[in-house]
Design brief:
With 226 residues, the protein is α+β, with helices and mostly antiparallel strands. Helix content is 25%, strand content 38%. It folds into three domains: 92 residues, Ribosomal Protein L25, Chain P (Beta Barrel); 82 residues, Ribosomal protein L25, C-terminal domain (RNA Polymerase Alpha Subunit, Chain A, domain 2); 38 residues.
């Protein structure tokens, strides 16, 4: 297991005054959980940004707080609405043997033969799983291999996924993860086609009537002139 470490300092500044910390390149955060009281802390913003590019929601991070090293999970990330700048992070301290209930993303891998052979569409019905596992066994994701999808209608259920032995899946095993569906083409309804044909016939008839009416009026004008 790769170790990710972030240096942290205790934080005395709270409330609106934390804006000054952000201007100094420090990120306000809090750590709570396994055997500790909630502790306001600060971290180096740049270091946090680099770490968040690598780790997932279920990746253990070591927070060095003075002489202590605390294993923690990222539990909430607050960002500025427009610029998406980091504002605050919540960490949950855990022990390696502690059982954690959380969600992990389902990552689709492989190439589905049905997509190449029949130009099928892979429709996703479930993009994450709810699991329970010890902190040391938490996976970053669960893999869904679509190389087994050969025919239209082939699908993958929760029970078809390969789950690490120490992980308990809390979702219904018969719940659909994804399915191979045929592409649907928009067809013109028969009524619409018939209506279009009728419109064309009416238009042609009107043109013919106008033509005949024009010839009749020209004949009447010639008679009147005589």
């Amino acid at each position: 297991m790769e170790k990710y470490v972030l240096e942290a300092q205790k934080r005395e500044v709270i409330g609106k005054k934390v804006k000054a910390l952000r201007r100094e390149g420090l990120l306000p955060a809090v750590i709570y959980g396994s055997g500790i009281d909630p502790q306001p802390i600060t971290l180096d913003t740049k270091a946090v940004i680099q770490t968040l590019k690598i780790v997932g929601a279920n990746t253990l991070i070591t927070l060095k707080l003075g002489k202590k090293e605390l294993l923690a999970l990222v539990r909430d990330v607050q960002r500025e609405v427009i610029k998406r700048d980091l504002l605050h992070i919540d960490f949950q301290a855990v022990s390696l043997e502690e059982s954690i209930t959380t969600t992990v993303p389902i990552v689709i891998v492989g190439e589905a033969p049905v997509a190449k052979e029949y130009n099928a569409v892979l429709s996703s019905a479930l993009d994450e799983l709810q699991i329970e596992a010890k902190a040391k066994d938490l996976p970053d994701s669960i893999i869904a291999d679509v190389s087994s999808l050969v025919e239209i209608g082939d699908h993958i259920l929760v029970k078809d996924l390969v789950i690490p032995g120490d992980v308990i899946v809390l979702d219904d095993p018969d719940e659909m993860v994804l399915v191979a569906s045929a592409q649907t083409l928009m067809e013109i309804e028969p009524e619409v086609e018939e209506g279009a044909e009728l419109f064309e016939e009416l238009t042609d008839a009107e043109l013919m009537e106008e033509g005949e009416g024009g010839e009749a009026s020209e004949g009447a004008e010639e008679e009147s002139e005589e």
